[in-house]
Specification:
alpha/beta, Rossmann fold, 2 domains, three-stranded mixed beta sheet, membrane
């Protein structure tokens, strides 16, 4: 009986150890956003069942025991946000304001889908069946619609005036962080004044650097205004995206190539690329910081995100990377003596190990190695146990003979 049990254990253990475990990220993936979208974005038809690379890279869940962004409203100055999208439902999205209409209608719906995608990166909640969630899942989204698709169905474009109106509406609506994934290459007094208005109201403004690096790489606004956190894009390998704008104004970089988020009118996910989608990662981190460090000013939040970033292999600020890649754990947990006026060097908290869900390539190899090591031990213990049982029966369960050694004469 014991031998049968041991053999069964060995076979079962070897089967378990040698069975390949498919990484979650390879099970099912989101579909790319339409390249030539006309009119409203359809509902996504596929779901990202694993953990997307951007969420693995930034690992915001490391700090969720400290903060998930509760109490912070993030203004999304964009095309609106669909409040009915499952991972944004349940009160995560306010009604907002449509500044493109004189009557200032709500903006909690979204035809084009750009704003919903951005909002998902910032604050989408967790949901069974997917490893995707937003950076700050307990933050509240304030949608500000300042762009709509044209009558011929072509993508919306924002004027400097519309962006300025959107920033002001977000500030007046109670946002403590504003994300604007749009830009102009022409400086504008009204837009600059709106950014100053946000700064004077202690509001963090995060803006995309734009995608014209290969078309002359112009300076873009509002990203280039001094109080704004300007964000460029990196790919999965950490390289700067080919399209990502460069310049002295760049503050940080974040994932912006093949990133996952939600869309309007249904469950599921899309894949998108652009600095438009890098900026909301930073906006989400800003929300976490503002929630965990409510005493910090908007200027201090910007400084904190910059000095705690993962440095590029270059002198910072670097034209292509700014101060580096935003680091969620360091941004939330680092002790910055300058915030208390001590003037001592920066002390960065030690990073926690990656959780199994965030390990590149999934947990399959780790499980296989663990099983390969543990199975022989289990087999040996089973064999040893069977010998002890048989020996006990032979003795009638009497105590085993005790062997006594004579005392050492040298003692």
């Amino acid at each position: 009986m014991t031998k049968t049990f041991s053999a069964s254990l060995l076979v079962a253990g070897l089967v378990w150890a040698l069975t390949p475990v498919t990484p979650a990220s390879a099970q099912q993936s989101a579909a790319p956003l339409p390249s030539n979208q006309k009119g409203c974005l359809p509902a996504p038809t596929s779901t990202e069942s694993g953990t997307p690379w951007a969420q693995q890279r930034l690992a915001p869940d490391r700090v969720w025991s400290l903060t998930k962004g509760a109490g912070i409203t993030v203004g999304v100055v964009d095309t609106g946000v669909d409040a009915g999208t499952p991972q944004l439902a349940g009160g995560r999205v306010k009604r907002g304001v449509d500044v493109t209409t004189p009557e200032r209608k709500p903006a909690d719906d979204d035809c084009f889908g750009h704003g919903t995608f951005v909002a998902g990166i910032i604050g989408a909640g967790s949901r069974r069946g997917t490893g995707f969630s937003g950076v700050a899942p307990e933050a509240t989204i304030l949608p500000i619609r300042c762009a709509v698709a044209s009558q011929d169905g072509s993508p919306p474009s924002l004027t400097a005036t519309e962006m300025a109106n959107g920033i002001r509406a977000a500030v007046d609506g109670g946002a403590k962080v504003v994300n604007i994934s749009a830009s102009t290459s022409v400086p504008d007094d009204g837009l600059e004044e709106a950014v100053r208005y946000a700064a004077s109201s202690d509001v963090v403004v995060v803006a995309s650097a734009a995608n014209s690096a290969q078309q002359g790489d112009p300076v873009t606004y509002p990203a280039a205004y001094p109080s704004v956190i300007a964000v460029g894009a990196i790919d999965e390998s950490g390289k700067k995206a080919d399209f990502s704008q460069t310049g002295k104004f760049l503050s940080l970089v974040a994932p912006g190539v093949g990133v996952t988020s939600v869309g309007p009118r249904g469950a599921g996910h899309w894949l998108g690329s652009g600095t438009s989608y890098a900026a909301p990662f930073v906006a989400g981190v800003a929300a976490l910081v503002r929630s965990y460090h409510p005493e910090l000013s908007a200027e201090q939040v910007k400084h904190r995100l910059e000095v705690t970033a993962d440095r590029p292999a270059a002198k910072v600020p670097d034209p292509g990377f700014g101060w580096g890649t935003v680091n969620v754990t360091a941004a939330v947990t680092t002790v910055l003596p300058e915030e208390s006026g001590t003037g001592l060097p920066v002390v960065t908290a030690e990073l926690a190990p990656l959780p199994p869900s965030a390990q590149p390539g999934g947990a399959g190899p780790l499980l296989a190695v663990g099983a390969a090591v543990s199975v022989p031990i289990l087999v040996f213990l089973a064999f040893l146990g069977s010998r002890l049982v048989r020996s006990g029966r032979t003795r009638g369960w009497k105590p085993a003979r005790v062997v006594e050694f004579p005392p050492d004469p040298r003692k």
